[in-house]
């Protein structure tokens, strides 16, 4: 790689309107409000990263993340881009309590390095490219809203559904039944976002079984610190359990394997940063754990970056990259997902392939 230094870096708030509020058992997004981190090299090559702040899940704040990334922008100016791995290690230490800021720094550095090498980002994670088929989420709401959303998703050509549950047992049961009825043979994933106890989840699954509904998986049924509850649903639920909020580090992933607490992990850059997410994916695969790739409320920049990991590494059983479908405003250029949820990165020439506008 020809020598070049980071000429300048910048962090700023990045907002976008959503098509509808994104409601889960742990909170609601009415607006996307993230932090964009951009770097420019001395030879004119740029790199872009995004931090999606999920305060209701990780406790991080937009103000804190912006402050940290502004500090990073000052610190990395003048550094040699060839040292990007050392830089990523450095910020792994500095931003250990602010993983979405770490993800943004890693993303911008990797984007710039791969642009400089004139290679797509997925090559960083593997030698063969896969096509991905994303699900789409039916957010919390009433039963008729769930029915309308399910029909819309089917009309788009998407063939797997993630239904948010965990706030209202009886209504959630009716919503899942409505979605399953319309979805027919398409897989339905349930995501309680920590909203139930183990006993409630097992009862919920039993009631669904009486209705002859078998979800393809249930995600994070119990509070993130309730490892025993998670393991109990895994042992007794007769359904694949996917840990999301419980696995916020490589350490958590190791614990999950040791305690047989779940059979799948939802990997998200914003929980751990990019390199640690990659490590979790490799550890999971070596141990027979299934993988989901997911995101927070993120623009196509960060979502496509996540798609590069899943498409390059392979081995992701569940693709949950539907955040772009909830955006009303276009804040990026470069689109590699179809209306029907198919990610095809063959046309990405270099880096992530998506830039902010
Ligand atoms: Mg989840």
Distinct helical segment count? 12
Give helix and strand order, one letter per element, not per position: EEEHHHHEEHEHEHEHEHEHHEHEEEE
Q: Work out the number of β strands.
A: 15
Low-confidence stretches: none
- The whole-number mean of residue pLDDT values reads 96
Total individual domains: 2
Helix content: 25-40%
What does this structure look like?
The protein is α/β, with parallel strands linked by helices and 357 residues long. It is 39% helix and 21% strand. It has 12 helices and 15 strands. The protein has an 8-stranded parallel beta sheet with strand order 5-6-7-8-9-10-11-12, covered by helices on one side. A 3-stranded antiparallel beta sheet has the order 1-2-3. Strand 2 (27-41) and strand 3 form a beta hairpin. Helix 5 runs parallel beside helix 6 and helix 9 runs parallel beside helix 11 (274-286). The model has no long low-confidence stretch (mean pLDDT 96). Bound molecules: magnesium ion (MG). Magnesium ion (MG) binds at residues 191, 193, 219-220, 244, 266.
Short précis:
With 357 residues, the chain is an alpha/beta fold.
List keywords for this structure.
357 residues, single chain, binds magnesium ion, TIM Barrel, alpha/beta, eight-stranded parallel β-sheet, three-stranded antiparallel β-sheet, 39% helix, 12 helices, Enolase-like, domain 1
List the helices and strands and how they pair.
Layout: E1 6-24, E2 27-41, E3 46-51, H1 55-58, H2 62-76, H3 84-94, H4 99-116, E4 132-133, E5 136-138, H5 143-156, E6 161-164, H6 169-183, E7 188-191, H7 198-210, E8 217-219, H8 227-236, E9 241-243, H9 250-258, E10 264-267, H10 269-272, H11 274-286, E11 290-293, H12 300-313, E12 318-319, E13 332-333, E14 342-343, E15 355-356
Parallel strand pairs: 5-6, 6-7, 7-8, 8-9, 9-10, 10-11, 11-12
Antiparallel strand pairs: 1-2, 2-3, 4-14, 13-15
Helix pairs in contact: 2-4, 3-4, 5-6, 6-7, 7-8, 9-11
The protein binds magnesium ion.
Magnesium ion (MG) binds at residues 191, 193, 219-220, 244, 266.
């Amino acid at each position: 790689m020809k020598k070049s230094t980071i000429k300048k870096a910048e962090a700023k708030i990045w907002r976008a309107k959503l098509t509808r509020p994104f409601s889960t058992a742990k909170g609601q997004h009415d607006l996307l409000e993230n932090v964009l981190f951009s770097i420019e090299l001395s030879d004119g090559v740029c790199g872009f990263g995004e931090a999606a702040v999920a305060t209701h899940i990780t406790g991080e704040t937009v103000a804190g993340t912006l402050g940290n990334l502004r500090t990073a922008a000052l610190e990395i100016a003048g550094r040699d881009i060839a040292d990007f791995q050392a830089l990523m290690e450095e910020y792994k230490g500095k931003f250990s309590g602010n993983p979405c800021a770490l993800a943004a720094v890693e993303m911008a550095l990797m984007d710039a390095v791969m642009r400089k090498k004139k290679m797509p980002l997925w090559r960083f994670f593997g030698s063969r490219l896969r096509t991905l088929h994303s699900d789409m989420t039916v957010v919390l709401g009433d039963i008729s809203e769930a029915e309308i959303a399910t029909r819309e998703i089917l009309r788009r050509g998407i063939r797997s559904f993630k239904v948010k549950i965990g706030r209202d047992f009886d209504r959630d049961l009716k919503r899942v039944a409505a979605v399953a009825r319309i979805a027919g043979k398409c897989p339905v994933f349930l995501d309680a976002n920590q909203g139930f106890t183990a006993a409630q989840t097992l009862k919920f699954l039993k009631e669904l079984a009486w209705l002859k509904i078998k979800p393809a998986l249930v995600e994070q049924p119990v509070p993130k610190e309730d490892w025993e509850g998670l393991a109990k649903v895994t042992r007794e639920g007769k359904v694949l359990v996917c840990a999301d909020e419980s696995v916020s580090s490589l350490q958590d992933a190791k614990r999950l394997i040791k305690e047989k607490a779940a059979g799948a992990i939802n990997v998200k850059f914003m929980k751990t940063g990019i390199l640690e997410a990659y490590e979790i994916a490799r550890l999971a695969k070596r141990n027979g754990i299934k993988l989901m790739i997911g995101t927070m409320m993120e623009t196509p920049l960060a979502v496509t970056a996540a798609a590069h990991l899943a498409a390059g590494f392979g081995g992701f059983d569940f693709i949950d990259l539907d955040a772009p479908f909830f955006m009303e405003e276009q804040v990026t250029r470069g689109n590699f997902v179809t209306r029907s949820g198919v990610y095809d990165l063959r046309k990405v020439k270099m880096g992530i392939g998506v830039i902010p506008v």
